[in-house]
Amino acid sequence: MNGEDDKSTGTRESAAATELSRFPQTSRSETPLSDARQTDERATQPTRRETAARTTSVPPVRRRKPRVLLWSFLIALGLVLIVAGGALFYLWNGLRPTAASSTPINVTISSGMRAQKVAEVLEENGLIRSAFLFSGWLKIEGEGSRFQAGEYELTPGMTRDEIVAKLNAGDIVAAETIRFTIPEGFTVQQIAARLSETSGLDKNKFMEASGNPAQWTGSLWTKALPNDNSLRFPLEGYLFPETYEMKRGSTEVDVINRMLAELDHKLDQLPEDWQSTLEERGLTVHQLLTIASLVEREVVADEERPIVSSVIQNRLKKKMPLQIDATIQYLLDKQKERLLEADLKVNSPYNTYLNAGLPPGPIASPSLKSIEAALYPETTDYFYYVTKKDGTNTHLFAVTYKQHQKNIQLSEKNVK
């Protein structure tokens, strides 16, 4: 068996050697399987040419990206420039002067009108191109708050600065005006007659308007007028005596409200504590004007106004009748140089001989000096006074009735 085995073994080895001789010689570490793997790897890995080809194909793609970004930037920049240019053109065109013209245009700026409304009026009249831009420019420049009311004559083609300068300066058109003077101590009836003579206003319409509270807008103090049917004329004493200049064509109501506004203006000139002083004395503004009107009709010399005011105050404190002749004269159709006993008995709440205290209201329009005297009377003990009748328009004052009688005798001697 061993011999057969050896033979068979030898036979197999020779056969294997014969089979191996068909293939080229390789090292022992290399096998046909490993050759196959290497072949597969070479097949799957790119060759140098392929790698080079791929490498050279990338740069063209990368070169296109900067160009796209550049074009995008240029387009965006162009759009921004177009928008900015359009905005600048809009601003320039909207703020530049309008087409020049030699024909002036009259515009009216009302009292209290805001800058935005002024711009709208200017645009409506073709004096500016854009009210929106003009008002915005006014805000930036801090203008518009000093515009003055009135009628202006402006010309198309004026610059913004020229228009603003004219409105700030109040360079208004000189309108035709009426000028009238109301003397101190005038009554409502006398004021109506004076306006009829000098300004062509209707006397009856003036009197009618002076009795219609719904038309009074000039003064805050008319709101506090007492609802007293005994008032002869409600606005008596409230129409301030002054020289006025008003636009021609002003109505009777316009004149009344202008005079009422002047009263408020004059009261604002009193010392700051005037209302506190009035409250301390227990008086209303209506009563203040009533006392002032009595002083106005009784006194000519300014230095005597506070003294006569003190006489009124002293009599009121004692609850004595004021016995002021001016209140009787107020009830008469015509002023009398000398009152009679019968005149002193006229039945009226204004008759200070028959009624104690103040009359229902003022008897005339008092001056500011009389108002000040009524507010700040001099401190005296006087209860009586009588005119000197010597041409000085001054008075003799007395504490007692006996002294007063002597002063009357002295006054009569001066007449002789």
Please tag this protein with its features.
single chain, 416 residues, mainly alpha, Dna Ligase, domain 1, 4 domains, two-stranded antiparallel sheet, 6 strands, 50% helix, elongated, disordered N terminus
Describe the structure.
The chain is mainly alpha-helical and about 425 residues long. The protein has helices at about 1-20, 30-45, 50-95, 115-125, 130-140, 160-170, 190-200, 205-210, 250-265, 275-280, 285-300, 305-315, 325-330, 370-375, 400-415, and strands at about 105-110, 150-155, 175-180, 245, 385, 395-400. It is about 50% helix and about 5% strand. The strands form 3 sheets. It has a two-stranded antiparallel ribbon. Helix 4 packs antiparallel against helix 5. It is elongated, with a radius of gyration of 54 Å. The termini are far apart. It is found in: Cell membrane.
